[in-house]
Design brief:
heterotrimer, A alpha/beta (about 190), B mainly alpha (about 220), C mainly alpha (about 290), A: about 190 residues, alpha/beta, 4-stranded mixed beta sheet, two-stranded antiparallel sheet, 6 helices, globular, C: about 290 residues, mainly alpha, Ferritin, two-stranded parallel ribbon, 10 helices, about 60% helix
């Protein structure tokens, strides 16, 4: 199991348990197949009930998470195992992808377009489902449609991303280009 | 081309409507006033129950049905002045004290675990009795002189049949154990007994048969 | 069946969890939340893209916007449930008549019609939730809508529900409709527009009845409008609603005018919203 550090060690504004977060992180990391010698840092900003997340560093792997991302939406300030597994599943898969040479062309996170980001997320979420991690397919389909269009082309692209296991960054980029063409055609029919 | 001046019968051969009807203007107004009172109590109860039932599908359906019975009350409210009752409130009354007792018993359940009792009262007792009373009225009033009442009855009956079906299906979907079937049956029997004493939603003669004011006791039945 | 049901007696199945106004106010993170514009639910975005800096209001171009829309849609759903329950209770809680504590038959008939409309809105919201990938009960339910609006005085109830609550619904539906339009969602803006039409009717009902019931009692009318201001203020807590660019929910002036609000009345709501926002800003800034 990877070495995991959760900060803060003690939470004062929310009822989170750092040990539990570490335990869940370890389980997710093992399912994903991250190397045992990888150091994982999970930094939780408990002041923020919002849900923004970020891969702050790849060496060591550092995930910065606003507290709301791990929170139980029905019991505010309480930890949700499901939310932790859901969020970490897709983030750690993206980490794994970034460590893969097939993704060396991928832009830095802050330079990803919304379309690229959600496409990559869908690719991650599909793998999460097959690994037995919690996910919400219809939710991500909605996200995907919002960015790639409400169309048969977009839905077909979603299915390809969701069901794939070994894509490269180029594959993802090509899919984004395909849906962009479809959106352009819809906006300007007859123009090539 | 036919001669436009050639006399034609006032009633086409397929129009078999006749003048006679069982109800005078006053009797019709009396019944309509009773119908209106019942529809009002019903829509108020359905509206009040919405917040007390936890089952989401039942909750939404009660909201829809609340409106339908309110609309029925409105149709009757508008009919009364047309029947020479310029003060509709005067005739908006229960047929007798037993009808009041029935509606009080119908609307009594309020706990969140009493959805079966609430629905059975409405959909296995009251609405079937309304359908019976409205059908009797529809079939016995003058098809010519009382056409407006007939129109309202037909529109209302269409709603009643739909609501009856909706409610019955909800009840069937809620009954999962024999004990619940018995609960539903007991509730139905208790309310039927009160309505029997009332004579129906418009009192004795609601469906044409005069009904005894109280059911016979077992002693009377045996002797 | 008793009259005037307390809000904590609203019946729900096991999927629903309640979050009270007290819970919300006592959350020690509340101040930190207001310091940053709302960004919606977990999005795994890592703060990426050219719009990362564009953290204003309910902005469709922000990474978390679809999740924000989902959460808002669930909020709409539970709001419609409470509106349905409120309209239903108004049919039952008062005797029919012309007394101060009574309501005319025609008002009850209008409330019954509103029951139907709100039931339909619940149905629409459930279907839209399915479309957006939201489960019923996925988010905690706040019942302060029912609490704030359902007053035992029939006239206060009317303004609380039909002018304040339904007025908020107009603002929210308009915001969602615009979100749907910008995203190209074929169902969202279509459905929101149909619901918007109904809400305009409901507000108009409230405005018309307020005028009729208080025609000969200006003091009662003033009390009612004051109550409406209080409720409107609650609904604008923390700058949730307003006319500023970063207000998550924008005041929908055009539709409010259609519904019978005068310009002056809309200005009052806008001013209450500005004051609510300023209060929260001061709280965040600290002494």
């Amino acid at each position: 199991m990877a070495k995991i550090v959760v900060s803060p060690e003690r939470f004062s504004l929310v009822f989170f348990d750092a040990e539990r977060i570490a335990e869940l992180t370890g389980q997710v990391a093992d399912k994903i197949g991250l190397p045992d010698d990888l150091e994982l840092r999970i930094e939780v900003d408990e002041r923020m009930p919002l849900g923004r997340t970020k891969i702050s560093s790849l060496d060591p792997v550092t995930l910065s998470v606003e507290g709301g991302a791990f929170e139980d939406a029905k019991r505010p300030r309480h930890l949700s195992d499901r939310s932790v597994q859901d969020v970490l599943g897709r983030m750690l898969l993206r980490v794994k992808d970034r460590l893969d040479p097939n993704f060396e062309n991928a832009p830095a996170d802050e330079n990803l377009s919304l379309q690229q980001l959600v496409a990559w997320t869908v690719y991650s979420e599909g793998r999460c489902e097959r690994l037995g991690l919690p996910t919400q397919k219809q939710r991500w389909l909605y996200h995907f449609r919002n960015r790639h269009g409400f169309s048969d082309v977009a839905d077909a692209a979603f299915d390809r991303l969701w069901n794939a296991d070994a894509l490269t960054w180029s594959d993802i980029d090509l899919i984004c280009a395909e849906t962009q063409r479809a959106r352009d055609e819809l906006a300007n029919p007859g123009v090539r | 081309m036919a001669d436009p001046k050639k006399p034609r019968p006032a009633f086409a051969p397929w129009d078999r409507r006749e003048l006679p009807g069982s109800f005078t203007v006053e009797e019709t107004a009396r019944r309509v006033g009773h119908y209106k009172w019942v529809e009002m109590r019903l829509f108020e109860a359905l509206g009040g129950w919405v917040a007390t039932v936890p089952e989401l599908d039942v909750k939404m359906r009660l909201g829809t049905h609340c409106y339908k019975h309110a609309w029925h009350a409105e149709l009757w409210h508008k009919r009364l002045p047309e029947l020479r009752e310029m003060n509709p409130d005067r005739l908006t009354a229960p047929a007798n004290d037993d009808v009041v007792a029935f509606m009080d018993a119908l609307t009594a359940p309020e706990r969140t675990d009493q959805t079966i009792e609430k629905l059975v009262g409405v959909y296995r007792v009251l609405i079937p009795h309304k359908i019976a009373a409205y059908t009797y009225h529809l079939n016995n009033t003058s098809t010519i002189t009382d056409a407006p009442t007939i129109r309202s009855l037909k529109l209302i009956l269409s709603d009643e049949f739909e609501d009856w079906r909706d409610g019955e299906m909800l009840i069937q979907s809620l009954l999962e154990m024999e004990s619940e079937v018995r609960r539903a049956a007991d509730r139905q029997a208790a309310l039927e007994a009160i309505l029997l004493r009332a004579g129906g939603i418009a009192g004795p003669g609601s469906i044409g048969f005069p009904v005894a004011s109280a059911p016979p006791t077992s002693e009377e039945v045996l002797t | 069946m008793r009259r005037h049901l307390p809000a904590d007696a609203l019946a729900r199945d096991d999927r629903f969890v309640r979050w009270t106004l007290e819970d919300r106010i006592s959350d020690p993170r509340a101040a930190a939340r207001r310091a940053v514009s709302s960004s919606g639910g977990p999005d795994g975005s890592g703060g990426s893209g050219p719009t990362a800096k564009n953290r204003v209001g309910f902005n469709p171009s922000r990474p978390g916007a679809p999740d924000q829309a989902r959460a808002l849609m669930h909020g709409i759903f539970v709001g419609e449930l409470q509106a349905l329950e409120g309209a239903g209770r108004t049919c039952f809680d008062f005797d029919t008549g012309s007394g101060t504590d009574e309501v005319p038959l025609e008002l009850k008939l209008d409330m019954a019609r509103q029951c139907w409309d709100e039931a339909r809105h619940c149905e629409i919201s459930v279907k839209l939730g399915e479309w957006m990938g939201t489960e019923i009960g996925e988010f905690a339910e706040n019942i302060f809508l029912f609490e704030a609006a359902c007053n035992p005085d029939p006239v206060l109830r009317l303004v609380g529900v039909n002018r304040a609550l339904e007025g908020l619904a107009i603002d929210v539906f308009n915001t969602m409709k615009e979100f749907g339009d910008s995203a190209g969602d074929p169902f969202l803006s279509f459905c929101e527009d149909w619901m918007l039409a109904d809400e305009v009717t409901h507000v108009k009902m409230g405005s018309d009845w307020l005028r009729r019931l208080t025609e000969k009692d200006p003091a009662r009318r003033d009390r009612a409008l004051e109550f409406q201001r209080v409720v409107d203020r609650l609904f604008s807590t923390g700058g949730f609603r307003g006319e500023e660019k970063d207000s998550p929910i924008k005041l929908a002036r055009k539709f409010r005018e259609m519904a019978g609000f005068s310009t002056e009345e809309i200005d009052v709501v806008a001013e209450e919203a500005r004051q609510a926002r300023a209060e929260m800003t001061d709280k965040v800034a600290g002494p």
